[in-house]
Amino acid sequence: MSSRAWPRLFRTTAFKLTAIFLAVFTVFAAFLIGYIARNTSDILKSQMADAVDAELQSIELQYDRGGAAWLVRVVELRSAQPGASLYFVTDPAGDRIAGNVETVPASILNESVDAPKIVSYTSRDEKGSQPHSALVRVFEFPDGVRVLVGRDVSEREALVGLVRRSLMLTAALMVALGLIAWTFVSRRVLKRIDSIAETSNRFVAGDLSGRLEVTGTGDEFDRLAESLNAMLTRIERLMLGLKQVSDNIAHDLKTPLTRMRNRVERALTTGHSEPDYREALHATIDEADQLIRTFNALLLIARAEAGSPDTEFDTFDAADVARDVVDLYEPVAEEAGVALRFEECAPVMAHAHRELVSQALANLVDNAVKYAGEGSGTPEVVIGVSEKDGAVEFRVADNGAGIAEADRGRVTERFVRLEESRSKPGAGLGLSLVSAVAQLHGGELQLCDNAPGLAAILRLPGAAQQGAA
Fold this sequence. Notes:
The chain is α+β, with helices and mostly antiparallel strands. The protein has 11 helices and 13 strands. The relative contact order is 0.07.
């Protein structure tokens, strides 16, 4: 790892959390080590004290049995056994007469020790060596003979030391493992965060194709990467759509504006009478109305795609909406020589924004009437409403030339017109609005082959589905 990476590791959240956990663990481990060591020492001391008391009671029984002589003999026998307790017997004058202890502090023999006490002693087999420590009790018999019974505490201290060292080694090992884990986690976290930062910087710099790495482990970083990738994909699509819309606006709106300007300029330079000026003004007003309709359609699409808060839903009969649209377009269809027919049906209840649904259905009917005459047979447009799997379906079918399957995916984009000559009226926003309305309601727009012609199906959630939700 480079020297520049270490300061970054120390600034990571993983390091801070690890430092806090290690500090807490160290305090806890120190307390635990002290607690266990102390309790172990107390338990061993209690066990040794019980053993000393039991041994002293046994010595008293031996004295009661045979007096001082028998006591000395028993002590000598017990002292010769391996692992024996410590014994020190003195006569009334304080001189040693038996036992495996060579010397003990003289003060201990002159005190009345009712409870075990730790003193230093020298073993009879280790004369001149360093004194040891023992837990002892002293008892004086009626004839002045004193007996000291004890247990060496070196084993206890060794065991306590072993426990303490084991716990300290365990704590040190845990700290080391914690540091190793911190280094691994910090480096892994830094690597993923650096990847996120790098991708974000590339995206900000204009590279919209960059995506975050998904390792496939399914961890929180993968879930975050998947969410951010979906967001980046959405942003990329919106940015590309915005660019396309801007290009299309510049192309499609520049022409009518230029035409308006030229018409007005021509009227000013060549017009010689009031009828000429009126004709130019009427044509300019018609062109301006078309531009206003285009901008209104763009605003309506934007509101529908954004889910504007003022789009209030209500429950209504979808068949009534379809009948109203058919009544509205009957004169238009009759003028164009297209047979417009509505398939009567029972009431189909929908829960949606009625005006937006009406506008979307009107756009579908307008497109169908406009292009039905391009087929070989008698132009016909059929509108139907049905309920399928709890959803409401508006079906607008014509027998015109239809739309090639390869083009059905892009005709719902703004300003897309498959008619290269653009001789028919329109700005290429009709199906975009229908798609936006479907998206707003959680539905979908399907363009299918009607063999011949095109069948456009607008599917929206029914009133029953909305009630269940």
